[in-house]
């Protein structure tokens, strides 16, 4: 049975932000199935670079490269490293950057990847594949642990903290206690093992959402350092975008969206500046982005009906100013 096609979320709105033009250079920082890349390439005679950490993306990218010869290239890596990756291929400035976060439909629909709690598979969840080519935390030379590694070795308090912080699961302590108790008898190796335990501990939810949802989300975010990737990716986009370049970011849950909102709000404000009649001080910060719309853009009812995974999506857009990228302390450099 063939899998349903991947449907890019808020595609028309992303294109309206990016505004592809002939001769432009664009970056699809989270390639996935290539929906945004293909749409940008169709919209103008432009060049698109794409980034993906998942080795399974290569086959889809090769197909796209054949359809758009000389105009499309995939670079393997993490989108948080986009500035270094683009520098490595000789690209200094980009006219537009598109990003959508989280797990892709292809990963969810592949039980062997271990992302889905609905189908049995190895408890893996590494977006870089079983080789673990994506590091967790600050040490880029370490191999990422799988979800099974985390579940079977982390202490009870650490597990509870992970499940609460990244899954916002209110029963995180009970789940962590049950995991530590059960793993003494049988280590967790399969997705159905963990999903069954969580369902047993949490019980049926009033909202109808599978009880395992938040725990699986938490482990996936932790294993892949997804929030850290977002922080690094936003900084990378700030470096790469030329003045007037556009940024379109699609988030799928509050943890992601909050990160983007906070970054763009800080980068588009003049916080720290004195009166415009007073001399600028070293602590003053000029905006590096201009918000194209205050607040997030949400999918309409028709799109949600076509693609249920779009329901939680939030798009935030901004335009790069002429101000140099900010230093780590937030001041322009």
TrEMBL record:
The keyword Cell membrane does not apply. Keywords: Cytoplasm, Methyltransferase, rRNA processing, S-adenosyl-L-methionine, Transferase. One of its GO terms (biological process) is rRNA base methylation. CDD domains: AdoMet_MTases. One of its GO terms (molecular function) is rRNA (cytosine-N4-)-methyltransferase activity. Its EC number is 2.1.1.199. Residues 300-333 are annotated as: Disordered. Belongs to the methyltransferase superfamily. RsmH family. This is Ribosomal RNA small subunit methyltransferase H. The gene is rsmH.
